[in-house]
Amino acid sequence: MTGNRPFALTRRALSLSALGLAAAPLLARAQAQPADPLPSWRDGPRKQALRDFVGAVTREGGPDFVPPESRIATFDNDGTLWVEQPVYTQVLFIMDRMKALAAQHPDWTHDPVFRAAVAGDLRGVAAGGVHGIMRLAGAAQAGNTPEEFGSVAADWLATARDSRWQRPYTQLVYQPMLEVLAFLKASGFTCFIVTGGGVEFVRAFSQATYGIPPWRVVGSTFALKPGERDGRVVLTREPSVDFVDDGPGKPVGIARQIGQRPIAAFGNSDGDFQMLQYATEGSGKRLGMIVHHDDAEREYAYDRESQIGHLARAMDEAPRRGWQLISMKQDWARIFP
Amino acid sequence: MTGNRPFALTRRALSLSALGLAAAPLLARAQAQPADPLPSWRDGPRKQALRDFVGAVTREGGPDFVPPESRIATFDNDGTLWVEQPVYTQVLFIMDRMKALAAQHPDWTHDPVFRAAVAGDLRGVAAGGVHGIMRLAGAAQAGNTPEEFGSVAADWLATARDSRWQRPYTQLVYQPMLEVLAFLKASGFTCFIVTGGGVEFVRAFSQATYGIPPWRVVGSTFALKPGERDGRVVLTREPSVDFVDDGPGKPVGIARQIGQRPIAAFGNSDGDFQMLQYATEGSGKRLGMIVHHDDAEREYAYDRESQIGHLARAMDEAPRRGWQLISMKQDWARIFP
Q: Is residue B17 part of a domain?
């Protein structure tokens, strides 16, 4: 699909030239004209909705025009920008950390979720739900500074491989969503990640993987304790999660860190419900999109029965709320870069 | 000073032309060459320190080069970017709000700080210190959404006038600091405000006044309670300050929201001490600058004796920490735009 539009424009320019009209400016415009900004999206209502929305809010003088400083879009990460099955990538990171630290923490054997993590038992970890995962997160990742943690996470991401594809996790990002990020950026949007995951974990790869700098990642946080060591400022990550950026927490995280209501939001689970609501309940033209994982062959198929990426209410209410359900199977010509 | 450099380059270009060398490219470069980026700064060690620092970290291949994504600079607001005397501008806003709301809150008369606020007694309010101000902030500004509060603050800022200069507060910003913001931006920096003030109050004017979008303002926050009203997401600002972005809180606010240690920091009081420390204790070339209010004639003169903008420890330790003390009187050719 990529090459079609420039070719068509070139033909049009040539035919105008045959009519005696100046072809040069039209040719120049045809060459400058970007190719299809969403080449991995199959033609259909979802691709159209994306293009229509961006067209409407960027059309100066149009009824739906939004100035660039208000073009805020928010993206969930797990299951929306990268793979979240069979369990959140950060949980795999935490399990690797817990294995390494287990000998120093004999008390961990008394806790079923902790025991599952150390044993590498994904089902046991998933059974603990988001709350269990948050407890694991605190236990496995505390006691260091944000900078120290950032390099531990980056080191792990550089070497760890997914068991199904044998690829680094940062390559298991959705090519169609990378194209949405690039399309929105090119259209004057500022894009943010709003993740239930730990903010510092996602910041460890957001710039290199998505082109999103750390301050445009909103996420769950550990209590940070300020102090001094050898007369220097030291921030210590305490073993307690003090903000859960999930469900009703997402609009709170957005309001606190971004300070502005998004005009577009992208999610894939009921944990994104309130973010989608918050974005699309604002006045003017809005866009809410949900990635529906219905492609077991190329990725995974799951929704209402899944613990990870549970999707029921958001899917059920999508039609009346005007949210677009993206079918991974139908709408995406390719999944990974 | 502004016009000197382009003129000099033009003369050089003309003399080269007289020597038979092609003048056109040099002329084009001279026209593109920016004028002095800091015209309101008098020549001297502070202006030089600013230019040297920016030159060093932007020189590709040089020993102090910092890639653009790590060029983070943080600025305190009250007393660093705009006037904070005789009392923080947000306190004047709060006092006006409290006057308006007092009739509905007879209990306020029992609290000396609240009574002072309603009576318009600045000294009484200042005597309550930062803690008293935070309590006032909660009482006067709670119960609404961030969006509602933002427009209340913007409306007030549009009409309120400072009693000494009879100007809107957003015009009582320091022209030399606006030039630093612009100079850093043009040099590939991303600048943030890190304020002890309420984040939503500063966001109400940061874009228009400083060109800083809301997500690049870090500040003190109220607890935000998520809920629903008529089936729509509603965030309610609770009457309690849940994060004080001052003193040791500033590095915490920076780590949480920016996610990166700044390489330059600008402050004016001991409330900025830990931010200056955090920025300048990082490895590589760093810049810490303190605005010293020593100009009673053109603005105010205060430091260790002042409740507002108290400056003692940061000034005393500045020499050994390599922080530059900016003399408003000596270093700034003009104060306001």
A: yes
- The mean pLDDT value for B150-162 works out to 96
Of the two residues B2 and B238, the one the predictor is more confident about is B238
Q: Is the CB of residue B220 less than 8 Å from the CB of residue B234? A: no
E-state strands within A152-269:
190-198, 217-229, 232-243, 264-267
Residue B39, in any domain of the structure: yes
Query: Exposed, middle or buried: residue B178 (CB in 10 Å: 0-12, 13-18, 19+)?
Result: middle
- Cβ distance B261 to A69 less than 8 Å, yes or no, reads no
Q: Angle at which helices B129-141 and B112-119 pack, to 10 degrees? A: 70
- What Å distances lie between residue B175 and A104, B1, B55, B171, B313, CA to CA? 57, 15, 21, 9, 26
Q: Other C-beta atoms within 10 Å of A151: how many?
A: 12
Evaluate if residue A15 carries a pLDDT over 50. Answer: no
Q: Smallest Cα–Cα separation from A84: which of A173, A22, A11?
A: A173
- C-beta atoms of B259 and A226 within 8 A: no
Q: Which residue has the tokens 């795999």?
A: A92
Alpha-carbon B110 to chain mean position: 35
> What pLDDT sits at residue B34?
61
pLDDT digits (tens, 9 = 90+) for B215-265: 999 999 999 999 999 999 999 999 888 999 999 999 999 999 999 999 999
On average, the pLDDT of chain A sits at 90
- Is B7 part of a structural domain of the chain? no
Total number of domains in chain A? 1
CA distance A241 to A247: 15
**Cβ partners under 8 Å of residue B162, min gap 6:** B83, B168, B169, B172
Q: How far apart are CA A78 and CA A87, in angstroms?
A: 10
Q: What is the mean pLDDT of residues A253-268?
A: 98
A13 and A26 in contact (C-beta within 8 Å)?
yes
CA atoms A135, A139, A140, A145: torsion sign = positive
* CB-CB under 8 Å, B203 with A226: no
pTM for this entry = 0.88
> Which residues on A lie below 8 Å from B254 (Cβ)?
none
Kindly tell me if the per-residue pLDDT of A8 is higher than 60: no
Q: In terms of Cα–Cα distance, which of B251, B260, B273, B258 is closest to B321?
A: B273
From A99-103, A255-259, B285-289, the region with the lowest mean pLDDT: A99-103
Residues 257-276 of B with CB under 8 A from A: 257-261, 274
B71 interfacial to chain A (CB closer than 8 Å): no
Residue of A nearest to B149 (CA): A259
Return the ∠ at Cα A114 (arms to A110 and A117), rounded to 5°. 140
Helices (runs of H) and strands (runs of E) counted in chain A: 14, 7
DSSP state of B294: B
- As a whole number of angstroms, the distance between CA B323 and CA B327 comes to 13
Distance of CA B215 to CAs A62, A260, A310, B192, Å?
27, 8, 30, 9
Boundaries of domain holding A286: 13-88+149-331
- The domain that holds A315 is classified in CATH as 3.40.50.1000
Does this complex have an ipTM over 0.85? yes
pLDDT band at A122 (very low <50, low <70, confident <90, very high): confident
Per the domain annotation, does B100 fall within a domain?
A: no
Q: B260: which chain A residues are within 8 Å (Cβ-Cβ)? A: 213-215
Cβ atoms of residues A205 and A154 within 8 Å: yes
